[in-house]
Design a protein that fits this description.
By secondary structure, the protein is of the alpha+beta class. It has helices spanning about 35-40, 50-75, 85-100, 105-115, and strands at about 5-15, 20-35.
């Protein structure tokens, strides 16, 4: 007998179908979560040994791929943008905060640009 519990989640989508949304969309949902491996097995949702091996190998490959990408980016002199080294990132982050505070996207872009003294590159 399973004792599944219903859990909820909240999320924000800022992009969809490869495009940035005009305004972030908040959404939520629920799902039934198992409490134990025994429950997984009883519900016939416990992965087979082959599925476990595939899962672990996929994780290991993803980790190795990310490390190799970071090494290649470093070798090419490509630096990960952050608030200290990327003016446009600072602008975008400030706009997110202003939009979350109720400003329109246009107004938030203007306020961010004036406040930071940075022109938009786009």
């Amino acid at each position: 007998m399973t004792h599944m519990k219903t859990l909820t989640f909240d999320a924000i989508a800022e992009t969809a179908y490869g495009k940035t949304l005009d305004a972030p969309i908040t959404y939520n949902g629920t799902y039934d979560a198992f409490d134990s491996i025994d429950e997984l097995k009883a519900a016939n949702e416990y992965p087979t040994a082959t599925e476990v091996v595939k899962f672990v190998n996929a994780q290991r490959k993803a980790n190795a791929r990310q490390k190799a990408l970071n090494t290649a980016l470093d070798a090419a002199g490509i630096i990960k943008p952050n608030l200290e080294n990327d003016e446009q990132l600072r602008l975008r982050e400030m706009v997110k905060i202003l939009v979350a505070a109720g400003k329109s996207d246009t107004e938030a872009r203007q306020i961010a640009s004036i406040t930071l003294g940075i022109e938009w590159a786009e």
